[in-house]
Amino acid sequence: MTADPLASGNGTAPWKVLLVDDEPAVHEMSRLILDGLTFEGRAVELLSAGSAAEARELLDATRDVALALVDVVMETDDAGIALVQHIRAQLGDHDMQIVLRTGQPGMAPEQDIVPRYEINGYFLKTEITAQRLHSIVISGLRSYRHARSLRAAPSQDSAPREADAMRAALHAELAAYADGEQVLIEAQPEVELASNIVSGIELVPQWKTSQGLLTAQRVGEALGAGPERRRIAVWLMTQACRWARSWADDAGRPITVSIPIIGTCLGDAETLAAIVDVMRAAALPRGTLDVLVGEAALLDGHPDTHGAVAALRDAGATVTLADFGARTISLQRLSRLIPDRLKIHRLFVRGAAVDAERMALARSLIALAQTLNIVAIADGIASDADAQFFKWEGCEFGQGDALAPACAPGDVADFVLHGRRPAH
Question: Which one-letter DSSP state was computed for residue 419?
Fold first, then answer.
């Protein structure tokens, strides 16, 4: 494996930039544009891969890649996204700067990708001029150098102090927000595949902060246990109850409303009790509210997660294990919890109808859910072929643009519940 020039002290080795794209012309043009580019006296070496699979092979042999410029749609519709997951999860590389580039923004909308995946930039190919490419590369190399320098000097106090200061600033920023302030909420319909009827809505909140858009999980981690996190968790559950009642009245039938758990609330007795109080006060029919619990809550969470889930069920909620398959979870731990529903991670959903390996994985996950008598939900269905595949395989529900695109909560009644889909 090639030595890391920052770790070895070699200040003359070139910066390695990986370009992953299935269009040969993109490689040729990028090589011409970056020819002769230097940063801090070191040349830029452009490595090329024509597919995500080729990039994975290259990264197995060369780990000191500072920046990766990755196309989204290559051998599959989300090959670039899968590569990002491989770099961050399998390789464990969180220093490499990753910039996604796409010529088909409809396949991977920016508002969907940026909050969900650990990337450092997202651009349309049509936006990238020669000067913009230079700027992207220089900015990426600067960020990589900074990340590596912090990691190479753990004994110095500056890095921990800087990280602590950022956490404290974010905590103060979030704590200062009034209920609902700086929160963007998206409604993602959940469709019964057999009937094509919208049976549920997932509320996807994101908080606008000085450090970008943060998910509920990130907000919970930033706030930690305490009154601020409890206040936000109660506010979010209150919104879920309000929308559930409103949508059921509009549709004339029950509508399940799913919300994510805030941080590690399952291990916080006071926050859990406050959430349960809101649910009981709303007096909604059992099964109207659904709580999304990430696999991390089972793998890294509080020992009494099982008891917390039981408390939510006693209050009338169902429990969905979100992003199933994204991390390794033992059958023993899964069988102890027995969630009401499993949401199959979109990495195993998109393209399953045409990709043999993905098809086999999807079938095994659906079969596991059926064996445990758990409802299966396919997340991220992006084509009619994928929708048909999951329907045939016995997956009960699906989410994704091919079924019903996400919309604002206020648009749900007009568009989704009355059989008219939101405009793309």
Answer: T
Average confidence (pLDDT) over 296-316: 73
In this predicted structure, the answer to whether residue 163 has a pLDDT above a threshold of 70 is: no
- 155 pLDDT more than 60: no
Residues 140/97, Cβ–Cβ less than 8 Å: yes
pLDDT in the model for residue 330: 53
pLDDT tens per residue, range 178-235: 888 888 898 999 999 999 999 999 998 988 887 777 788 778 878 887 888 889 999 9
Q: State how far the alpha carbon of 224 is from the alpha carbons of 185, 219, 258, 263, 319, in Å.
A: 22, 9, 23, 8, 23
Positive/negative CA dihedral, 82, 83, 89, 91? positive
Distance CA 242, CA 410 (A): 12
**So what's the pLDDT on residue 286?**
94
Task: Round to whole Å and give the CA distance between 84 and 118.
Answer: 8
The answer to whether 61 and 33 are in contact (CB under 8 A) is no
Tell me the residue type at 182.
Answer: Q
- Which helix (H) or strand (E) segment is 378 a member of? strand 375-379
Contacts of 72 (CB under 8 A, 6+ apart): 78, 79, 80, 81, 100, 101, 102, 104, 107, 108, 113
CATH of 5-152, one of 3.40.190.10, 3.40.50.2300, 3.20.20.80, 2.120.10.30: 3.40.50.2300
Q: How far apart are CA 123 and CA 137, in angstroms?
A: 13
Instruction: Show me where the domains of the chain are located.
Output: 5-152, 166-416
Tokens at 382, concatenated:
């992006």
Name the phi and psi angles at 91, rounded to 5: -80, -20
pLDDT in tens, 227-277: 888 899 999 999 999 999 999 998 888 899 999 887 667 778 888 899 999
Question: CATH code for 166-416?
Answer: 3.20.20.450
Which H or E element spans position 277?
Answer: helix 269-282
Residues 252 and 405: their CA atoms lie apart, in Å, by: 22
pLDDT per position as a tens digit, 72-117: 988 888 889 889 988 887 788 888 999 998 887 666 666 667 777 8
Q: Are 320 and 258 in contact (CB under 8 A)?
A: yes
| CA neighbor of 354 nearest in space, from 117, 60, 145, 78 | 78
pTM: predicted TM-score of the whole model, two decimal places: 0.63
Give residues with Cβ within 8 angstroms of 206, minimum separation 6: 115, 183, 184, 185, 186, 213, 214, 215
- Rg of the chain over Cα atoms, rounded to whole angstroms, equals 23
